[in-house]
Fold these 2 entries.
Entry 1:
Amino acid sequence: MAKLNVNPTRMELTRLKKRLATATRGHKLLKDKQDELMRQFISMIKHNNKLRKSVEDELQASLKDFVMARAVMSSEFLEEAIAMPKEHITVEVSKKNIMSVNVPVMNFIRKLEGDEGSIYPYGFANTSSDLDDAIRKLYDILPRLLELAEVEKACQLMSDEIEKTRRRVNALEYMTIPQLEETIKYIRMKMDENERGALTRLMKVKTLIEEKS
């Protein structure tokens, strides 16, 4: 491991020791953060997989009802029946912090027009009950679709943060800390060598003085 290009002085040694202590402490904190991020990420992925399967099954059931409704109703009449929905939906997005990652929190805001509680934008006389079932299932699945989008976005953001943290941990573990340790070792060797040289010169001067005396 290459050492840093510094002067081998006692002041520089003290400064590098402080940097090494800070880097070691930072490495431990980042490693703990990485482990906790991974724990939460794995839990979130498991929840995402279960939620996705559930949503896909419910969507498939709703689409089957639509297919059955289309089989007994003309395409034009079906499109006319659902062309003017009674419900208006908006999404309110906020954020929450998970291990320094800002993940989205989404909430539905629903407004129904006309008959209170009625989600069907058509009369029941000329429509199929399969269409009613499909509308009801889609209505019920909307919150879970929104939750799925929220969880998948959170997983993506957590994955990005894990990758950034991993790179920082590796940089400290395999570059910064070894370089500091190698440089500190070099400075200590250099200082010991200088002290031995100074001691040798002093002993030689002492010998010369004693000889002259």
Note: The longest strand covers residues 87-98.
Entry 2:
Amino acid sequence: MPQRMEAGLSRRITRTAEGQDHPLLSGRAPTWDAPAVHTDEVEQLPEGATLLAGNDVTRVQAAEIRHDRGIFWGVQYHPELSLREIAIALRRQASSLIEAGLADHEDDVEGRAALLDRLHQKPEARSLRWLLGVNGEFADEIGRRRELTNFIAALPSLDRR
């Protein structure tokens, strides 16, 4: 998906009807932004899977897949990554971002990465949130990692029969 790649941020992720009450997305606003660095996407979910969220760029942003006694909750975006790790990833793929038309010059990529580095150090900085166009939930580590904590909290109650 090089012409539609999401780099740094996945914007306006929105729950599907099936995702409204799913425990993976508990506590999420109806629409949110998340860290993202990917050039591949899930084109089709397996039969019986449940689409939980998507956006205009990537139809499958969150899903539940059940197989035999296994339950898999997955997201396309990266709640596990810190903002500093996202900045590092942007710097590493600067030429790809330019080629995809997301940036004109390496300096543009560096500028975005530097803002993410600064927000990593000062998540409460409203000025940095404004410059990146993100809210406090994205800036705050706990808010950004909500799917991870939701999964861990749900483990004891998952019905694997």
Note: The longest helix spans residues 106-121.
